[in-house]
Amino acid sequence: MVSCTHAPANESPRAPGRPRAGVNAAVFAATLTCVDQLGYARATVDRIAIEAGIAKTTIYRRWPSKGALIVDCLLDAFGPAPLEGADRAEVMSSSIHWIAHKIAEPGVGDAFAGVFSDAVSDPDLRKILSTKFQDPYRVALQEALGEPEERVLFYIDTVVGTLLHRLGMTGRPMDGADVTALIDMVLAHFTAEAP
Q1: What stretches of the chain show up as alpha helix (H) in DSSP?
Q2: Is the pLDDT of residue 50 over 70?
Q3: Which superfamily does 70-190 belong to?
Q4: How far is CA 57 from CA 25, 60, 140, 153, in A?
Q5: How far apart are CA 115 and CA 85, in angstroms?
Q6: Domain boundaries in the chain?
Q7: How many CB atoms lie within 10 A of CB 99?
Q8: Cα-flanking dihedrals φ and ψ of residue 63, to 5°?
Q9: pLDDT of residue 167 exceeding 60
Q10: How many CB atoms lie within 10 A of CB 148?
Q11: Cβ neighbourhood burial of 125 (10 Å; 0-12, 13-18, 19+)
Q12: What are phi and psi of 8, to 5 degrees?
């Protein structure tokens, strides 16, 4: 496989014909590799296609834009949220540990922050990110926590916003004692009795 950092200009990534099995998995792996090696902005669809060993047109047949590809890649990387625990505090704690761990995986946090930033000025991407990525997790959290939509959205904003802010400001994911402190702060607010 060609490294993302050495994308040849005239090399055909594969022979023409039917797409091979596992294209999505190859594209998702190539996407995270390119984002990890080059950063979000430089991980172009051209470079991702070369890294995956497929034609760029194969990617565009599945995803109309880089942003749409990144959203599906993130869905694949995150998988279902492990909303387990004996009570609300355990469910919230496990979900915060899970998202912090996922954001720390190579390429994932950078891809998440990049697509999130692009969505600020792209209403179509913002809708894809909201409906395809955030909404399934929001609904699952609402059911697990028995909270209304507005409170769950605030929970997501607080946790994800803090984790992405740390990544953006330091270049490193939040971990260890800082994740524990975030959990303590969030639990203090969300498990407190209503006034």
Answers
A1: 23-38, 45-52, 56-62, 66-78, 88-104, 108-120, 123-128, 135-145, 149-170, 176-190
A2: yes
A3: Tetracycline Repressor, domain 2 (1.10.357.10)
A4: 16, 5, 35, 36
A5: 31
A6: 1-62, 70-190
A7: 20
A8: -135, 125
A9: yes
A10: 10
A11: buried
A12: -70, 145
pLDDT at position 5: 61
Q: Which has the closest alpha carbon to 131: 143, 119, 121, 144?
A: 119
- Report the alpha-carbon distance of residue 90 to residue 80 in Å, rounded: 17
Confidence band (pLDDT; 50, 70, 90) for 191? confident
Top pLDDT among 22 and 193 is at 22
pTM of this structure: 0.87
Identify the pLDDT of residue 3: 67
Show the tokens assigned to 162.
Answer: 């803090």
Could you tell me how many residues make up the chain?
Answer: 195
Task: Give the residue among 108, 125, 128 at the shortest CA–CA distance from 117.
Answer: 125
**CA–centroid distance for 77 within its chain:** 7
